[in-house]
UniProtKB/TrEMBL annotation:
Protein name per Swiss-Prot or TrEMBL: DUF1830 domain-containing protein
Record-linked Pfam families: DUF1830
Source organism, top-level taxon: Bacteria
Native species: Halotia branconii CENA392
Length: 130
């Protein structure tokens, strides 16, 4: 997964996919500042999910927004935010739409009956306005 801005330095070869969810009702600013030659800072709105790549040793600082200020409310190691990346098997298109238990198609066929599908439109008229 590529970073939109500020890609990781090339010496950071082993990255993990991470996910952070802002479960508060306040805006948060998340920042990783312990990786040399890399700037990572994002605004995360309440309920928003942030998915990003980072080295396992990265530390995420979470700053919770208050009126005209922000308080450092947490520090989380990115290896604790790691999520499992999907395997190639999960993207196997040969088995899409097949129920693995009964081997029947999970999608019903589309009704292709040919017939008159156009009907006149009934329009109501406004008789008077009081």
């Amino acid at each position: 997964m590529a970073q939109i801005l500020d890609p990781l330095p090339p010496e950071q070869s082993e990255n993990i996919l991470c996910c952070y969810v802002n479960a508060t009702s306040k805006i948060q600013v998340v920042r990783i500042s312990n990786i040399a030659n890399w700037y990572f800072e994002r605004v995360v709105f309440p309920g928003q999910r942030l998915i990003f790549e980072a080295p396992p040793k990265a530390q995420m600082e979470i700053h919770t927004g208050m009126m005209a200020s922000a308080i450092l409310s947490d520090n989380i190691r990115c290896d604790r935010l790691a999520i499992e990346q999907p395997s190639a098997k999960e993207f196997d298109t040969d088995s899409v739409g097949i129920d693995p238990i009964s081997n029947k198609s999970m999608v019903s066929s589309i009704n292709t009956k040919v017939g008159d599908t156009t009907k006149p439109l009934t329009i109501s008229r406004l008789v008077s306005v009081d």
